Amino acid sequence: MDGKQGTYEIPPEMRDFAEKSVDQARKAIDGFLGAAKKTADTLESSATTVQANAKDVSRKTFSYAEQNIAAAFDLAQRLVRAKNPQEAMQIQAEYVRTQFAAMQAQMKEFGSAAQSAMSQATGATGSKK
To answer: Distances in Å between the alpha carbon of 23 and those of 18, 20, 65, 91?
Structure first.
């Protein structure tokens, strides 16, 4: 026994193969973690966008409700002060016209907000690819 009998040499080809396998596995895991992080960032960004848009819509909804309630009380007050049925009918007709215009403007604004929210949500998911 010359002392070399107990040592085991790994062939260089096998060592190279093992190193390449470890390197490829590390790159695959890094790629997977990077993709997972991008997905998490996208979901977080989308959730933040949706939450911000929901708050904005909620604020607008309350604002419009306040405006519409104030207009209804104004109508009631004006009707009580009307001098005759003809004046009351004119006040009512004017109220219907102005409220119809206000409702159209409000719905248009809600439509724009919804479109903007969809664009931002798709932009948030599309920009992180």
So the answer is: 9, 5, 62, 81
- Give the amino acid at 97: R
Closest alpha carbon to 47 in 60, 55, 109, 14: 55
Tokens of 73: 């009380």
* pLDDT tens profile 10-63: 788 877 888 888 888 888 888 888 888 888 777 777 777 778 777 888 888 888
CA distance 15 to 21: 10
Other C-beta atoms closer than 10 Å to the C-beta of 85 total 8
Q: Is 89 in a helix, a strand, or coil?
A: helix
Q: 114: which 2 tokens?
A: 């919804």
How far apart, in whole angstroms, are the C-alpha atoms of residue 107 and residue 94?
20
- pTM over the 0.90 mark: no
Give CA–CA dist 81/77, Å, rounded: 6
Dihedral of CA atoms 24, 25, 27, 28 in degrees, nearest 10, equals 120
